[in-house]
Amino acid sequence: MVDAATSTTGDAARGGGLDPEVCAHWRLTPGPALGHRASGTWAATREKAAFVVKHVDPRIFPDWPYTLRVAAALRAQGWPTPEPAEEPWIRPDGAWVLFHRLPGRSMTPADGDRSAEARARGRLLAEFHASAAATGIVDQRGGFADPAELVRDPLLDHWLRVHERYRPDEGRPLRACRDATAAWFADNPVVDAPRSVIHGDFTPWNLLFDGGRLSGVVDFEATHHTYQVADFALSWRGYQDDVLRGYDEVRRLSDVEWRLVRPAFWAWMFIGLTDLLAARYGDARRDAAPPTLEWQVRHLRLHSPLLATKAGVPTRNG
């Protein structure tokens, strides 16, 4: 899998117009592009009904049917998740999926409201995880791995060393972080912490509200089975401590989970990097410019006073 934060994709994923062939296939009137993720997403209508069209490149998002299964299982429990309106259309350029458009819109909190929003989102995430565990989905999504398996991959270490030769400002802290994370999991081979499928990007822009009520939980592109605290990677992001506080109000985090938050967060930063670096530094692309991993480095260096207290260790890296 190539992580959406670092990937490059074709025209369908860069916000261009919706493919006319797709519109003809489903008799759609195209609307604007939505979002900025690596899989293209567009609004569309058909006989006044509103839809969302997604293009999924399996090279970037493997085992994409898994995302539909997780969303359906959560929808059966009352969560407002995207529901396909037609069978996915498989083409040489990937999969095209037509969803009924959910009502509402995402809320962008004002500066003064960010703490309250983060705390409320943390509480909602704890409720989401209770339902996620109740789905009974325990198999792993193809292309994903547990955090420990991810960071101990020798190919990741190899390509980080190669990247360090070209970009020492990025490669050095990333490799040090990988080593520290791998060492943590080696010292803690059996982690007694709740697991389930997770959302993967439980952020304000992926939660829709209509009249003050939750009307949509969207973007399951990173869903997979892992430790529940791994879902803090993109919801807490290393510094939004009120997400952790709100979560802990609904489901009390154990001491083990507090210690697990940091290595699970750091491991998330390496999702997709092996493929990305191999594609750049392999024989086929030696003339390409070195990729930038500034996003990963910046997030690895974030500091959480709450986690430093709860986990009993400093969290500043590099």
Description:
This protein has 318 residues and is an alpha+beta fold. It has 2 domains: 11-100, Phosphorylase Kinase, domain 1; 105-311, Aminoglycoside 3'-phosphotransferase, Chain: A, domain 2, CATH 3.90.1200. Helices cover 40% and strands 15% of the residues. It is built from 12 helices and 10 strands. The chain has helices at residues 20-26, 65-75, 114-134, 147-151, 154-166, 168-187, 232-235, 241-250, 255-268, 273-281, 294-300, 305-311; strands spanning 29-33, 41-46, 49-56, 89-91, 94-100, 105-106, 195-198, 207-210, 213-217, 224-227. The protein has a 5-stranded antiparallel sheet with strand order 1-2-3-5-4, with helices on one face. It has a 3-stranded antiparallel sheet with strand order 6-8-9, with no helix packed on it. Strand 2 (41-46) and strand 3 (49-56) form a beta hairpin. Helix 5 runs antiparallel to helix 6 (168-187) and helix 6 (168-187) packs antiparallel against helix 9. The longest helix has 21 residues, at 114-134. It is globular and about 60 Å long. The two termini are 26 Å apart.
